[in-house]
């Protein structure tokens, strides 16, 4: 059996925690959770997104995402609109407040990416990113 230390799922969780150490202070300074930021970044990048796609893209289970969306809506960061084609489905939209926040945080987030790449090494960062992309793509095969 694979040694505990070489367990890929555990290594990935630990690596995520190390990477997030670079970003958590920026998010905390702006009263955002990691999950809220994930949702806002996906919406800012992809535009209005239906709930199930948003759940998949953010890796947040539906019950948890429901609460996150409710809190973001109360804070004025997102709005919900029913699909014109299916009344059971709704799309999440960002607001101007979100767009302004993302623009404000973009330089700080990029600075943290630079710090991570400097510490880890740009080449190793690119290699790791490519390998993780390939691993993720196994899901569609």
TrEMBL record:
PROSITE patterns reported in the protein's UniProt record: HTH_MARR_2
Pfam families: MarR
Alphabetical GO biological process terms: negative regulation of DNA-templated transcription; response to stress
All copies of domain HTH marR-type, residue ranges: 5-137
Coiled coil regions, renumbered to chain: none
Molecular-function GO terms, alphabetical: DNA binding; DNA-binding transcription factor activity
Gene3D superfamilies with a match to the protein in the record: Winged helix-like DNA-binding domain superfamily/Winged helix DNA-binding domain
InterPro entries: HpaR/FarR, HTH_MarR-typ, MarR/SlyA-like, WH-like_DNA-bd_sf, WH_DNA-bd_sf
Descriptive protein name: Homoprotocatechuate degradation operon regulator HpaR
Organism of derivation: Vibrio marinisediminis
